[in-house]
Each structure stands twice: as C-alpha cells, then as structure tokens.
Specification:
heterodimer; A: 101 residues; 3 helices; B: 265 residues; globular
C-alpha cells in the first residue's frame, strides 16, 4: 500500500490515500486487500468492493467491481465524500444481502 | 442458548428506576444512574448500530441516556444519529477529535477514537428528574494489554455521571459478536470479570457457539437486524427494547437485593 501511495506526488493527498485504505479495511474483519502495480482493491464477501487508483495529484475511488461511481479525491472534503459514500454502499450491501437470503 | 422467556416490555419495568429513591448525599438528591458497557468483539456486531439502538430504547421509555463510544472503525454512532459527514468522520482524520451531540432531547452522545480524549468532554444538561442510563460502547480487546485499556474505562465513563463519581463501574456488560470464536468470547468474559466483578454479563450473538459461563442472559440477533444498518437513524427494532427491559429489570432487582451496588455509591 505504501509503495502504491508513492505514485501520488502531493504528501497531503498521499496521507489521505493511506487513511482511506485504513478506514475501509476496518469496515469488516473480512475485508481482503488485493494490490496490483496501478491500483488497490478492497473487497468483502458480501459483494462490496472499492478500487483505489493513485494518480499524480489525486486518487480515484471507484465503488463496485463495475466501477459504477468514481470520486476524485484531492482534498479533505472530497476524502469525506468518498468515505461517506463507501460506507453507505458497504452498509447497504450488507442489508441487501440479508434481505435476499 | 437463546432467550426463551417472554421478555417484559421496557415500560413494564421502567417504574423500578422511576420510583427508586437514592440516598441524599450532601445537600441534594442524587440522580438514579445505571451503567451499561457494550463490548463488541468484531465488526459483525456493528457496535455503533447496537449502541444507538440500545440508547434509543432506553430513551423511548422515559430515561435519559448518555452514550460514549470509543470508535475504532466505521460506522460510529454519529452515523446513526444523522450527523453531517464532516462531523461523524472527524475521528477518521484526527485521532484526537471528540465529537458530541444530542438526539431527541433525551440522548446525549460523544465519540472519539481515543479513550483519553474524553477528558475534554463537556456534557450538555440532562432532563430533570429522569433516571439516567450511561452506556459505554467500545471494541473489546483480545487481552488485557490490547486496544482499549479496560482498567481506564471506569474513570473515563465517570465523566458522564451527574453524581460526581471518580470511577464508574458497570452494572452490566453486554458482550456482542457473532460468536464464531469461543476462545475470544471466553476471553472477553474473563476480562470483564477482572475489571468489573460485580457486573452482570449479557451475551449477544448469532450462531451456535455457547454463551460463556459468566453470561446471565443470552440474546440471539434477530435475522432481520442488519436491514437497518444503512439507515442514518437509531434502529427501532423491538429487540433493543427487549434487551433494555431485561437490563432495567435485572439491575433493579439485584440492587434491591444488594447483589450489586449502585454504580456511583
């Protein structure tokens, strides 16, 4: 994760990237992290997935494997919006999974 | 083993709090206080969801509630009390952030990721004359050295007391988790006994694992409980009222019999 974060030149955004990964990883004890040279995927068996793509000045947060929603994070405000959306998506998927069981 | 007795409703037993007279200390009467700790073993319990639901159940029946959450990970209680994202997410960015609020006039709440931060807490006034339930929610550490420092909890929780207590030991500890790991459940019960030997132990779980020997009550998660996880309001399922009623009843009975002492004496 640290190696991937170094793709981001801005130190403040890099710190937000690491913080974002940390918070999403704590959503559940069953979150799995998969890292490739260009992105990081955090996945939970309920179907929840977040893909993080670090760029030079910002990072992209894509919600869902199908990347239905992309959020550009380059400030504290956009970090909070992305984290709020990710949390809402995670809780909704947990609820939906139960309803369909 | 699931709870099979028909639980009393909270309004059936809340009079036990309302009619209890506390001995006067100094010039004035002390407010009746009960203290409940909620120790979550893992994320399957959704600590914040449970804490908000329990607080709402007590408040719905004429108690006022002070809720403190040591939050490691999201969601926290701010999410369930409908806070703006900038406020409820503050502890995610700042380990020293302390966020406080009120809900419906009868619940005051605060949360932070660090136990020591609560020293700065400045609680808002409570409704007069109502019995006071103090709920402290936290992630249960794996052992006495890990995570939240169990022995520091009574002093931190005392900040919420209106009776000037230095330490606030729990009347009851609710241990919540999916129960997949029996050793973890036993460890949490043992830690509870170590820090609060007089407290009643409640165990809340989903699954076949047996409740620890220390547990006086065992509640199973209802199948549909997670359906309210995504709502940004306190859950209102009757299940929370059942637990709150059971807690009120047993705390009152045991105090009357002198089995446990009032938390602030």
């Amino acid at each position: 994760m640290l190696a991937l974060s170094r793709r981001i030149a801005r130190r403040d955004v890099r710190a937000l990237f690491i913080r974002f990964c940390h918070e999403v990883a704590l959503f559940s004890d069953r979150i799995e992290i998969e890292e490739t040279p260009f992105e990081l995927t955090l996945r939970e068996p309920c179907g929840f997935a977040v893909i993080l793509s670090p760029l030079r000045e910002l990072f992209l947060v894509s919600l869902g494997e199908e990347r239905s929603t992309d959020i550009r994070v380059s400030s504290v405000e956009s970090f909070m919006s992305a984290l709020d959306l990710a949390l809402g998506r995670y809780l909704a998927m947990k609820s939906r999974l139960l309803a369909s069981a | 083993m699931p709870e099979t007795r028909s639980p009393r409703r909270l309004e059936d037993v809340s009079h036990l709090f309302l009619t209890k007279r506390e001995s006067a200390k100094g010039a004035g009467l002390r407010r009746m206080e009960a203290v409940v700790w909620l120790a979550s073993l893992d994320s399957s319990a959704n600590r914040a969801h449970m804490a908000a639901g329990l607080a709402h159940a007590f408040a719905a029946n004429a108690s006022c509630v002070s809720l403190m959450e040591v939050c490691r990970g999201l969601p926290n209680i701010g999410y369930y009390f409908g806070m703006e994202q900038a406020r409820y997410l503050a502890p995610a960015l700042d380990r020293h952030a302390l966020v406080s609020g009120t809900w419906g006039g009868a619940i005051r709440f605060s949360f932070a990721s660090n136990l020591s931060v609560f020293e700065r807490s400045c609680a808002s006034p409570l409704p007069a004359a109502a019995p006071h339930v103090i709920i402290v929610a936290f992630p249960c550490p794996e052992n006495s050295r890990g995570g939240i420092c169990f022995p520091a909890l009574p002093a931190a929780a005392a900040i919420l007391s209106e009776n000037g207590s230095q330490d606030l030991f729990p009347d009851a500890v609710v241990i919540a988790g999916n129960g997949a790991n029996a050793a973890r459940v036993r460890g949490a019960a043992a830690l509870t006994r170590e820090v609060a030997p007089q407290a009643m132990v409640y165990f809340v779980s989903r699954g076949a694992v047996a409740a620890p020997a220390e547990a006086e009550e065992h509640f199973d998660y209802p199948e549909g409980l997670r359906a309210s996880w995504a709502r940004r309001t306190p859950p209102e399922e009757p299940w929370f009222g059942d637990i709150a009623a059971s807690l009120s009843q047993l705390i009152s009975q045991k105090r009357k019999k002198g089995v446990i002492r009032a938390a602030n004496e």
